[in-house]
Design brief:
The chain is an alpha+beta fold and 289 residues long. It is 44% helix and 11% strand. α2 crosses α3 and α7 packs across α9. The termini are far apart. Bound molecules: zinc ion (2 copies).
Length: 289
């Protein structure tokens, strides 16, 4: 006699005639029992304990797959439905998986939300509520995107023209970086590179130096380099000196006011100025200290 492969597989797996008949929708007496006899297999021990929990029954048919997904190891119906029996009732694997994970029956159809076809991992199931929540989240994301479109191009253009970076415009107006980049490219503005700004050296100097209440002008860091449009680099201290004295400084330029990082042109000194001051002091106090 010809034995169906799926029947033979389940017979070898040790299932009873009734279990096989239920799973494969075949007749136990007409199909399964003769196949068992032909294969010379003993009757399944009727003592095989029925699963005491839904979870146990479910996991008799599952196998962990990669990335947390789960495979159904028992035969699947011709129409793709994954069904097993427990406590005289047909369960779809999805229903059972949902209930096992959530501790309540699924509302409406349960389906895997992980995008993996026929995954039965309990944690991956979603019911009607979950799908609705997802749809709502997607709608909210679209609304947020629409709100971002409500920021007029002009606002972005103005900020780009003023030299702001994409990141700072995104932060300020909650617009998508792609949109800002597109506008920037349309304007032909070069990508923003920190430290290199298309402005004249005196502009950079004025922009970065911070006036204090007591009359100093503080450089924001200890790197005094100013990069110019033509690719040259200048020291903010030496630039300040030239502004005041109209000549290049000799030796190191330092704040003569005693305030660290002060670049106020009136407060900076070069070496000859310091030496002159030292000798004046020596004359006054009569000491070579
Ligand atoms: Zn999955
Ligand atoms: Zn000063």
């Amino acid at each position: 006699m010809k034995i169906r492969q799926d029947v033979a597989d389940l017979l070898h797996a040790g299932l009873s005639d009734r279990e096989i008949a239920a799973q494969l929708h075949v007749d136990a007496k007409a199909t399964v029992a003769p196949a068992r006899a032909a294969l010379g297999l003993p009757k399944a021990r009727s003592g095989k304990k029925p699963a005491s929990t839904l979870e146990e029954a479910f996991h008799r048919h599952t196998q962990r797959a990669r990335d947390g997904h789960m495979r159904w190891t028992s035969p699947i119906q011709a129409n793709g439905a994954i069904i097993f029996r427990w406590r005289n009732r047909n369960w779809t694997a999805y229903q059972a998986a949902f209930e096992i994970h959530n501790g309540r029956p699924a509302s409406g159809k349960a389906l895997p939300l992980c995008g993996q076809a026929q995954c039965v991992a309990p944690a991956h199931m979603g019911d009607q509520h979950d799908r609705k929540a997802r749809t709502e989240a997607a709608r909210e994301a679209r609304t947020a995107q629409a709100a971002s479109l409500a920021v007029p191009d002009k606002v972005i253009v103005d900020m780009l023209t003023a030299g702001h970076s994409i990141a700072s415009i995104v932060r300020a107006h909650r617009v998508g970086p792609d949109r800002v980049r597109e506008i920037r490219d349309g304007l032909g503005i070069e990508p923003h590179r920190p430290g290199i700004k298309p402005e004249a050296i005196d502009q950079t100097f004025r922009r970065r130096a911070v006036p204090t209440e007591d009359g100093h002008l503080l450089w924001p860091g200890t790197d005094y380099r100013i990069n110019t449009i033509d690719g040259a680099a200048h020291s903010a201290l030496r630039f300040a000196f030239r502004q005041k004295y109209g000549r290049n400084p000799i030796g190191k330029v330092l704040p003569g006011c005693g305030t660290a990082r002060c670049v106020r042109p009136e407060h900076v000194e070069d070496r000859p100025m310091r030496e002159a001051l030292d000798s004046q002091l020596a004359t006054i106090f009569g000491s070579a200290a």
